[in-house]
Design brief:
single chain; disordered N terminus; alpha+beta; seven-stranded antiparallel beta sheet
Length: 320
């Protein structure tokens, strides 16, 4: 509500009361009426009692020490009815939108910064958690296919050819290297690694040195026989051998069973022999419990196959 102001007078001069502008008084009347909402809703809807409303407003101003002329009070009542001094927002438009944006630029600026930080966080998170690892994995695979595997294959092939003492061993090494290089050409890392691994296994086999011996153990057989399913009238005879290295320790060798075609690394297995050889081993043990002729064969360095000291048929079993 507007208030009467008193201007400071020069020293020795009595202060004079300044009259409020009529328009300001009329606005103050309207403001007073709006604050007296219950009074307005009852009085202004009854035109006959408008004079009573004027009197009550005059009393309100008098209680505040204000002398407001009747014509100002009447003007204020009229202004309230006509909705004067009431702010009506402009209709929606591009100009209004831009004006609001300018007034609220500080808030919009904070929201823009927050959005920028959020979007930046999303991109950074994707770079750190998804794109970055994918890119590094792709680069690692490229290096493996173009540098690491080709170098390893060449190195292992040279080792295999150096170790190989038989044409079959050299041919096997060159074939595995060719398979690995073909896989590299079609960017098949899995296939290349498998062939490279087989080539490394070949080198290890070429370097192996061991003897196949029949070792008599108490309570364990030195020979067994099988009746094949496809020929129930026949028998397959096997002697049980151990692969023993130059240091006297067992050597693990990949052996394929002829019964189920499974290959396992073992140091003891059954080698198929003729019935005569099988019976001879039995007689040797039964003679004094010791097998004098216990060397079945020898695996030399640079060779893939065992050089047998007694007749064998080439089959093997892993269980008996």
């Amino acid at each position: 509500m507007a208030d009467v102001t008193t201007a400071a007078a020069p020293m020795g001069v009595a202060p004079t009361t300044q009259k409020l502008d009529d328009l300001m008084l009329a606005m103050d009347v309207v403001d007073t009426l709006r604050h007296e909402e219950r009074l307005v809703s009852r009085e202004l809807n009854e035109v006959a009692r408008e004079s009573e409303l004027v009197e009550r407003l005059r009393s309100i101003y008098a209680s505040q020490g204000l002398d407001v002329p009747d014509h100002i009070i009447h003007e204020g009542v009229k202004a309230l009815k006509e909705s004067r001094f009431l702010y009506t927002p402009p209709p929606k438009s591009f100009g209004r939108t831009m004006a609001y944006a300018w007034v609220n630029r500080s808030r919009w600026g904070k929201m823009a910064v927050a959005a920028f930080v959020l979007i930046g966080g999303v991109f950074l998170g994707r770079e750190l958690l998804v794109a970055g690892p994918e890119r590094r994995a792709a680069e690692a695979q490229r290096i493996e296919l173009t540098q690491t595997l080709p170098r390893d294959i060449n190195t292992t092939l040279k080792e295999a050819l150096t170790e190989a003492q038989a044409p079959t061993a050299r041919a096997r090494a060159e074939q595995l290297a060719a398979d690995a290089r073909a896989a590299l050409a079609r960017k098949d890392a899995v296939g290349a690694k498998k062939s490279a691994g087989d080539l490394q296994t070949l080198v290890a086999q070429l370097r192996q040195v061991y003897e196949l011996r029949i070792i008599a153990r108490p309570g364990q057989p030195v020979g067994v026989f099988r009746i094949p399913d496809r020929n129930r009238g026949a028998r397959n005879h096997y002697v049980i051998v151990d692969a023993i290295g130059a240091d006297g320790k067992p050597v693990s060798v990949p052996v394929t069973s002829e019964e189920n075609n499974q290959t396992k690394p073992v140091s003891r297995w059954g080698v198929r022999v003729s019935e005569a050889t099988w019976q001879g081993v039995g007689r040797d043990r039964n003679d004094d419990g010791i097998i004098q002729n216990n060397k079945v064969g020898e695996k030399r360095r640079g060779q893939l196959d065992v050089t047998y000291a007694m007749p064998v048929t080439g089959g093997a079993i892993l269980e008996w």
